[in-house]
Amino acid sequence: MALMKKIRNYTVGIVLLSGAVVAAYELLLTDEAKQNLSKSVAEMRKSVQDLSDAVHDARGVTVDEENYLANREDTLKQWEAIGF
Predict the structure, then answer these.
(1) Is 69 within 8 Å of 77 (Cβ atoms)?
(2) What does the mean pLDDT of the chain come to?
(3) pLDDT at 62 exceeding the cut of 80
(4) Three-state SS for 53?
(5) What is the CA radius of gyration of the chain?
(6) Residue 29, Cβ neighbours under 10 Å: how many?
(7) Residue-wise over 66-80: b if at least 16 C-beta within 10 A, else e?
(8) Contact, 34 vs 25, CB < 8 A?
(9) Rounded to whole angstroms, how far apart are CA atoms 45 and 55?
């Protein structure tokens, strides 16, 4: 029962908070502020999408075994040269 009460309280709180945010948006913000907020949200979405695309592209890159081994050997030699 206690869990159900917590869930109900959280749900009521989220609904009330959402209503307050919508009311503040509609009543307190000017048209210019609403436009700026919309632009900011659009820029954030674009930034997140660009970042997601960059990460996806980085994961999709395949490495040739020959180039990988040569690079690995060079790196090991460099580490040995500095004493590791």
Answers:
(1) no
(2) 86
(3) no
(4) helix
(5) 26
(6) 13
(7) eeeeeeeeeeeeeee
(8) yes
(9) 15
